[in-house]
Amino acid sequence: MTLYEALKELVEVVEQAIENGDWKVDGACDPDMALFSAKQVLNDNESLFEDFYEHIPESEDSL
How many CA atoms lie within 13 A of 44 on its CB side? Predict the structure, then answer.
């Protein structure tokens, strides 16, 4: 799984949890800005995530 895919899945899971009532959103824990920022990163940087992921070693043995 790439970083892009992980962030996309996280956004989807959080939105679904809020929609289903599993995550009660109140003033103390409002994820709107974090979700907005994550979506902006996803929209603007899919290729950046892919390029970054290509440079991460697959295992400690390859270091």
Answer: 6
pLDDT digits (tens, 9 = 90+) for 3-17: 888 899 999 999 999
pTM for the model stands at 0.63
Q: Which pLDDT tens digit goes with each residue over 21-61?
A: 888 777 777 788 888 889 988 888 766 666 655 655 665 55
CB 38 within 8 A of CB 11: yes
Query: What angle, 0 to 180 degrees and rounded to 10, lies between the N-to-C axes of helices 3-20 and 46-54?
Result: 130
Which range of residues forms the domain containing residue 39? 3-62
Torsion from C-alpha of 14, 12, 58, 48, nearest 10 degrees: -110
Angle (CA) 55 56 60, round 5°: 135
Total domains in the chain come to: 1
